[in-house]
Every structure is written in structure tokens, then in C-alpha cells.
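We examine the record.

___
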Amino acid sequence: MATAPAKQPDNILSLQPGHAIRIRMEAGHHYKVRRALRADDPDALEVPDNLIASRQGDALHLRYADGSTLTLDDFYRTCTSDAVCSVNLVSDSEAGITLHGGNAAGGTVSGDGGTLVYAHGKHDVLLSMAQGQSSMAGTFTALGDAPVLTYLPQTPYASAAYEVPAHLGFTSIPAVIGGSILMGAGLGGAGGGAGTGGSQSGTVANGRVVGTIQAGPITAGNDLEVNIYAADGTTLLVQQVAVDSTGHFATSVGTYTGVVFARLVNKGTASDYLDEATNSSKDLSAPLIAMGVLSTAGATLNLNLNALTTVAANKAGANPSAATVAAVNTAVAHAFGLSNLQDTTVVPTNGSNYNAVDGLSEGEKYGAVLAGFSGMDKLNGGNMQTTLDQVSGQITVSGATATLTDAIKYDITAGAKVVATAPTNQPVVTTQFGDAVANLINYVANPFTEQQGLTTIGNTAGATTSTPAPTLFDYANANVIGIDTTTKLQLINDVVKTLVPTNVDTVAEVQTLSDAVTAVNTGAPGDTPPTQTQLQDLGIQGITNGNLQAVLAAIANTADDGSGVDTVAKIQALVNRVVDATPPATPGNAPDGYTDNVGSITSTNSTASSSDDSTPRHPHRSPACGFHQRRAVRRWRSCCLHLRPRHRHPHAQHAPG
């Protein structure tokens, strides 16, 4: 007695040539992909062959030679194991192969915006499907001339991500980081015209690229990925290689040999690393690059990927040879006092293993140099790309020798000094840290850089506007702490111009000005305000015990970024407005505790002396006086008082307010 054909089960996904299907994977979905043999008989099915499967974001995309496609959205997000959800595809076994999202392996770039995760089919057909996609075509070619090919990438961190037919000799893909297994099999396939060739099979050894990213310690939750390129820097070998919470990455590059470039990509705005100079979590602001050479098939290339390796890659030129890559890496390493760029485990200065007390190891030296780059980033407004361009533009490479200009050595030393003085949890980084980095780059540090910075600052004291103004790097090298933003820089330079060189020829003198500038800058957003003395240190006149709080409130009412108080004139204008709006202190309106100790006052019409507490710290910054009459009470703008000198800057001048 004949039995009726079984009804097509719900977990069968039936494809038709040229059709596209898109579904969202959910827990409990386990699909088998089949193709209907006849339109009038939905139960007549075969397993479609000549398949290329790629990962595109969190989706699994299946592309067949007949033009049909199947996209399984959320496959890699939802199907964390085959127990949750999965899809069964063609293989050399009648049972097929079951894929699930637990495998996050990165294989060859598929050319359709994804990464190849599986392929099976006739040799010539797969090569035809890979036309125009050089990386994929190269992978298939490397499998040999077997009539039927199977490609499986290695799982980097998880085992048993694929169910592999037992006759291939293993039960799961081995969990070796970064490898992949490429197989060419000539065994008869199950359905779909897999071919009936001979019994060839072979395994091709694949190369691996593994590496560690350093920008300060990499943080959990980063959104970093690494793309791997061939020697020309444009041919993509592998893309979207994940970076783990410790900064490590690993991938297979198939049978490729030669120069390799690894490029770090920031996908979003998540915090990526703990910055040395600020000891805060930061988002990567520039792509980092490393280069190396896979000399033989099946070898493993270990890479450090950081600011220094990026400088080396920038200096290697277009499409460098293996010899050039090796020479440039060595040259750049030696220029920074290191033995090599790629064979050393970097020890970041803000990591738990850095300890300069017992002398600097090779890894600690590497970390110290990178911290100097971090300090430069801070002085460059947090722009890492500016720092990379700055260094790359001032290093010359000839063969295996690289030379840094004195100007860039000066800047790197300044960056290291910023790290040494920044708020940090790294007690081993002391004030001698700048000297240590300067020695690594063969630059004479203290007292030379300190004196050079002070000299540059002093040159602008009392000078004309044509004199080059000191930079953030000059103040850092002068061992002055706190001048680390452009608004602070503008204000302190404005103050220095009103002084004479002997007023700013010691670190202590300039540090006093820096502290006052920093206090004004923090007072702008309403944080800790400056004191009356600090405002007077900046040459601000007219401040008394009676109006100080109003002055501080006026400062706090300016822009939070300090732009409203970045010149002496702007601050003086605030004080003048407060003075003009404040009635004179008389017995009827004086605040509690206020004593008006003004003696005789000098106006444009009289001369006398005064002991008022508004005495300016810089007495010769004397604006023209104004005499006012209001309600029959004489009132003078306190900024216009000619007061007895008591400050040590006798030659300071100030424009009329």
C-alpha cells in the first residue's frame, strides 16, 4: 500500500531560483534550507548546493549560484548555540552541516560587505561566484583543484561552533585562536548536484594575525574592530575582527603571505581605552595602524598596534616590500630608544604592572614613550590625529635609521611631563618621568627643557605682538602645571605681556600665574573660584572685600569653557561693571563687617594716598581716572585709583580700562 508524501515540516525553508527570502531568527527556530524540485509538488525537495555564506553584521546571508538568497537577521545575536536556534545547510554529509551564531569567526572578506563563514559547491561554480572579489577567489583557488570544495573558518574563541561531518576526520573545529581550515573535498555530495568526482581531500595550512592594541589599557565595552589588508593597503583580507576587553584580536588570513597591514577602526562613540595623561576613559579619535610580514604560509604574525606603529606605517610609503617594512619598524623603534616595535609586550604606565622604581624594562620603556604621545594628545586638545601627524612629519627614515627633529623631541618631552603631573592613579610616574622619556629619544631634558620653556615665556614679557607667543608645550617643558587648554594659554600669555622678563624667570613665578589662571578658568563654570589675591596677580584692579563676591558671580556667569575670561581686558571689564553697579559703602548701606578704609583718594582733580584693600598687585597698570557725582556722594571707579606701589612688578603697564 502506497503512503502519501509527508507534509513539508514547518522548519523547512524552501528556495526558488532568483528569489530572496529574509526572516528574523528567534529562539527555538531550527531551519533546514531546501529547494523545490517541481513547482507542483512542494514535497519534492533537494538540498541546494553551490553556496556562499557570509556574516553581515548580526545577520547570516546565504547566496546561491542560481541567484536565490536567504538572509537570517539577528542570527549572530540570538543563536548563541545550536540549542537556541540554527540553520542546516549542504555539506559532504547527507546530514548536512548545522551553523549557529556561537561562531563569531572572521574569515575571508566575502565582497558583499560581509565576512565569509562557509562555502560549499563545485570548484568552478564557486570561483565564478567569487568573480571580482579577489580575497574570496584567492581563498577558493588555494583549496586546490578538487571538483568539490568546502570552506570553513576557524572559531577564534569558542569551540564546537559548527557540526562537522565525521568523515572529515574531526567532530568540531579546533578552538585555536585565529586559524581556519580550508578543505577541498571530491567526495560525492548529498543532493544538489554535488558532483561525483574522485576521492581527493586536502587541508591547507592558514596564516594567522594576532595582536594587541595599546592606547592606554583597552576597556571592556569598546566598539573597536580591526581590518586586515594586503601589502597595497587597500586589498582587504579580513574585516570586522573583534577586539576583546583586553585589547587582543586574532584572525585567519588563509594562505596569504607577504606584507600585512592591520588597521584599527572605531565603530562608534563608546569609551575604548584608559588615557594615560588624563586617567579617564576616552573614545579613540584616530585610526591606528601596524604592519608586519607573514613570510610563510601557516605562520603566525604577532602585532602591536599603537601610535608608534602608526608612525612607522606612515613612513613606509605605498605598497612597501617586506624588507622595507622590517627596516622601517626597526628604524622607528631605535629612534625612540626601543629594540623593536612588534616583539615586545607593552606595559602601559597606567596599568597594574608598570613599576619604574626597579628600572625600566623594555615593555615599560615602550609604555613610557606611548604615554608621552598621550600627553601630546592632551596638549593638542585631545586630538590624537594631530599628534600622529606632528610626529610623522618630524621624523626622517633612511634605510634602517630614523632621525627625530629637536622640535619634536621637545614636544614629546612636554607630553611626558604632562603625564607626570596629571591627576592619575600611577604613583610610579614621578616628576623625573619627562627626563626618562627625553633620555629614550636622546634628548637632553632638565634643566635644558625647563630653561628653554622659561626663556620662550620670558621673551614675550613686555614684548610686541610680533614676538611668537609661548605654546602649551613651552609651559609644560618649563615644568609649569595647569596650562593645558587654549583658553588658559591665551589668558596667561595676555598677563605675561604686561610684565617684564624678570617677573617670569623662575618656575615659581610662572606657576603663581598659572594657578591664578586655572582658578579663573574653574570659576567660569561655577566651580572653585579664584581668590582676590589671584585676581590681583593677574593685574585685575578694583577688587575689594565688599565687591569680591559680585565679581566672582560675574565670572561664574560667563561661558563654561573659559572663553569669556580668557584675556585680562575681559576680566577687567567684568570688574568694572560690578564697580559701576555697586553703591559706595556708607554707614547707611555698608554690608555687615565691611569697613571702608579709604583715606584720601586721588582723582583727576586731586592727589593723595590710600590704603584701600583694592590695592592692585600690579600698581602701574593705571587706567585714566574718572570722577563721578551721584546723589551728592562722591564716587570713584576703584579701578582708577592711583595707589602706592607695593607689588614687585614695577614696570608692568596696562592699557586704560
